[in-house]
UniProtKB/TrEMBL annotation:
A Pfam family assignment: CN_hydrolase
PANTHER family in UniProt: CARBON-NITROGEN FAMILY, PUTATIVE (AFU_ORTHOLOGUE AFUA_5G02350)-RELATED, NITRILASE C965.09-RELATED
EC number: 3.5.5.1
MF (Gene Ontology): hydrolase activity, acting on carbon-nitrogen (but not peptide) bonds, in linear amides; nitrilase activity
Ribosomal protein keyword on record: no
Name of the protein in question: Nitrilase
Cross-referenced InterPro entries: Aliph_Amidase/BUP (IPR050345), C-N_Hydrolase (IPR003010), C-N_Hydrolase_sf (IPR036526)
UniProt keyword terms in alphabetical order: Hydrolase
Domain CN hydrolase, residue spans: 4-251
Domain of life: Bacteria
Lineage: Bacteria, Bacillati, Actinomycetota, Actinomycetes, Mycobacteriales
Enzyme class name: hydrolase
Length: 283
């Protein structure tokens, strides 16, 4: 039995990258002492997130950093034996991307650029164009950012590429159009949990979901970090304030147990999904 200790973070990270790195140092030091193997930090941990989804100002957006620059190299040194996923604004190909990187002390293991963009986010970031899994010391893993997990195809692409764990990094706010007086009643709060559980259950994988907390500009972030098992069951969860969701799980054993009778990936009927690759659906 190979048990993995997974931790997903709910915390506030603002625009000060140096301060964020100091905060990450403390988190990793503490969790390394607790035997954590996989740490999933939120989207926009380095540099913060935009403050307005409907009309962001590209000129005042998060600072974009080099994907191979000193900040990422420092993250590798900090990670040591731990596998760490962290979100940041990436400068690459002449554009700024909402990105995530997975590292250990040995270097960068995998990267992801957010592909799906809600509201006016395209004014602040360029879009990524692929979902790929990669090998890590805690098994084959893939990453999603924010709105990516709204789309079943995103997590499915990672699962088909062999991911048994998905790290879903978010800066997910409460509703910007229909805000509830209490966070648990907010429509986006419900959807955030629903998507986490559905993506895990439909692909029979483990999902570690992190999120920002607090307020940036006009956005109020939900928190609600969690670990979800391959049956869609929430194994550990935080609420709207900062905290850690931590669980010990034998990922391979639990995935195989979930797939013992019903094997969702193997039992797909791809011949019946005639319009899945088309953007000309009736909507």
């Amino acid at each position: 039995m190979a048990v993995t200790r997974i931790a997903a973070v709910a915390a506030h990270f603002g625009s000060d990258i140096a301060r964020a790195l100091d905060k990450i140092t403390g988190i990793i030091d503490r969790l390394a002492a607790d035997g954590v193997d996989l740490l999933v930090l939120p989207d926009a941990t380095l540099g913060g997130y935009i403050g307005d989804l409907r009309n962001p100002d590209p000129a005042t957006g998060p600072e974009a950093i080099d994907p191979d620059g000193p900040e990422i190299r420092l993250l590798c040194r900090l990670a040591g034996a731990m596998t760490v996923c962290v979100g940041y604004a990436e400068h690459g190909d002449g554009a700024r991307y909402n990105a995530a990187v997975c590292v250990t002390g040995d270097g960068v293991l995998g990267r992801h650029r957010k592909a799906h963009q809600p509201a006016g986010e395209h004014l602040a970031y360029a879009a990524g164009d692929r979902f790929t899994a990669f090998d890590t010391p805690v098994g084959r893993l893939g990453m999603l950012i924010d709105y990516d997990k709204t789309f079943p195809e995103s997590a499915r692409a990672l699962a088909l590429d062999g991911a048994r764990t998905i790290a879903a990094l978010s800066a997910w706010p409460a509703s910007v159009t229909d805000r509830a007086s209490r966070m648990p009643n907010d429509r986006q709060s419900r959807l955030f949990d629903l998507y986490d559980q559905a993506r895990a259950a439909e692909n029979q994988v483990v999902l570690a979901s992190s999120n920002q907390t607090g307020i940036t500009g006009s956005l109020r972030f939900l928190g609600q970090a969690k670990i979800v098992g391959p049956g869609g069951d929430i194994l550990a969860k935080t609420w709207s304030k900062g905290g850690l969701a931590v669980t010990d799980i034998d990922v391979d054993a639990e995935v195989e147990r979930a797939r013992r009778v019903l094997r969702h990936l193997a039992e797909r009927r791809v011949d019946a999904y005639h319009n899945l690759m088309s953007d000309k659906g009736r909507f």
